[in-house]
Amino acid sequence: MVVQLNGKKVELAAEISTLRELLASYQLQEKIVVVEQNGDIIDRSQYETTPIADGDRIEIVHFVGGG
User: Fold this and answer.
1) Which terminus has fewer CB within 10 Å in the chain: N or C?
2) Could you give the domains of the chain?
């Protein structure tokens, strides 16, 4: 399946079917992130059950601390 991830077309591995699995594949599942799917911000509690479909537009913003 091909999605647009942060503005770039990306082919996802076959085992990635939910937002939680997508975040895990980028090792972001434990980080503070905001996920937007097709223009809608998805609540963190819904990552496990929110499916990803071919052609979805997904934006992931994660925060980096610093000083």
Assistant:
1) C
2) 2-62 (3.10.20.30)
